[in-house]
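Thread title: Can someone regenerate the structure for this chain?

I was given the following input by a collaborator and told the matching structure tokens would be attached. They weren't. Posting the sequence so someone can regenerate them.
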Amino acid sequence: MFGFSKIKRPNTCPVAEDNRIWLENAFLLLLDFFGKENTRQRKILIPHHSCFPIRYNGDEQTAVETLKIIALQMEVPFEQIQLDFYNENAKEVSTGSPFGQGIYLKAEKDDSGAAGLYWGKGDDGKYNISLVRSKLKQPENMVATLAHEIAHIKLLGENRIDKNDEKLTDLTTVFFGLGIFNANAAFQTYRGVDYRGWRKMGYLTQMEWGYALSLLAHVRKEKTPEWINHLTINIKGDFIQGQNFIENNPEQIFQT
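Best answer:
Regenerated them for you:
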């Protein structure tokens, strides 16, 4: 009911066969773009003060400081990025974008609409991105949103692809050590005294994230990486199932 993973079977992949083939082919493409050795050596960022030494209080400066860390991690000069903010459910977004008010190119989505926007490069040579202000009070989701928008820069802005692919953009965050945040944001439950609910964010499913992260661990030759302890229970379950599938079916992995 709430999107939890199906019962785990060691010899089955957490995603359907066509999804597995797409994920593995996309993984190989991104390895070609960003380098296998770089992917193996890159630090994995976790939701901890050691990685994000910022006092989050809901103001815009915390987003700027967060963006500096993510831009450095994803190898995009911070000075080349212009960050703006907009209100949730706004019909028009007013920024310094050269594309005009109310028109955006690529968006990171959640259940309430666009969580972030990528506008492209302006006349000043800077990449323009926007963040919905509600994410200022959700630090981990803010990291996921900003990582997704910078992933657009890595793919579209740096001319690695010429047609937008949102799922490929989501997957790109994995290669730069930020996949934990985007995976955890994919499906979240919440509850209070007399209510409960859930929210979704991004373009990959919970199961796709779990398998993508198991492919990352496979490429990095990590059997039980410490960073999996920062995954939500559902993502971690799909990750473990993905690892079991890879271990039991080595002849199938990356052979499609």
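Residues 1-7, 94-105, 192-198 have pLDDT under 50 and may be disordered.
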